[in-house]
């Protein structure tokens, strides 16, 4: 495992973009596992900037996203498909027919999950998987629990997640209560993993994930068993690790 420290969010975003762009340059037809949320936005902006300068070519790239809300269509502005279009796909020369996100409109959970596992298999596996980390150590929507979920599965969102999302919807009835997410086995099967974390709210989760016991109570702790993990984090996110003299 390699850990790079960035001064701040912008520096972390640039360093993470460097690592992702190296993957694209070295393997122009790479399969990238992508993530949503506030953490990767800066990295995507940097990749777009380099694309516009002519430094990057996405024309042969395939992407698979970690997760999607069940019940939302791709044109709903709260869906992760919409997020990816707005923050990356609409701004680069990627072929959108090769950008995959779980089908939020598939009501049959078993079918949606089996279909997405098939997609991941059919694209030949993931070359580099981008991950953020939750304050409780979750990756994708793999929340702390009794066991590591293996492949794509449907999760019931926690009450706190549902409440946090409520502000984006007209009424509580419209807020998604479930999501489809890649499982730990899907994530661990990626050849390389790029974990990005910023802010002091992630310090405890990052410490437990990288140096604590491997347990489904801290889903990201499984990454200790992966052979090629790169972590890019800012001073705040690394504060506890440094305090304990581990870095």
Automatic annotation (TrEMBL):
Pathway: Amino-sugar metabolism; N-acetylneuraminate degradation; D-fructose 6-phosphate from N-acetylneuraminate: step 5/5
Listed name of the protein: Glucosamine-6-phosphate deaminase
Record key words, sorted: Carbohydrate metabolism, Hydrolase
Pfam families listed in its UniProt record: Glucosamine_iso
Active site: 67, 136, 138, 143
Enzyme type, top EC level: hydrolase
CDD domains, alphabetized: GlcN6P_deaminase
Similarity comment: Belongs to the glucosamine/galactosamine-6-phosphate isomerase family. NagB subfamily.
Gene from which this protein is expressed: nagB
GO molecular function: glucosamine-6-phosphate deaminase activity
Domain Glucosamine/galactosamine-6-phosphate isomerase: 11-229
Role this protein plays: Catalyzes the reversible isomerization-deamination of glucosamine 6-phosphate (GlcN6P) to form fructose 6-phosphate (Fru6P) and ammonium ion.
Cited Gene3D superfamilies: 3.40.50.1360
InterPro entries reported for this sequence: Glc/Gal-6P_isomerase, Glucosamine6P_isomerase, NagB/RpiA_transferase-like
PANTHER family, alphabetized: GLUCOSAMINE-6-PHOSPHATE ISOMERASE
Organism per entry: Blautia difficilis
Enzyme Commission no: 3.5.99.6
Domain of life of the source: Bacteria
Keyword presence, Hydrolase: yes
Catalytic activity: alpha-D-glucosamine 6-phosphate + H2O = beta-D-fructose 6-phosphate + NH4(+)
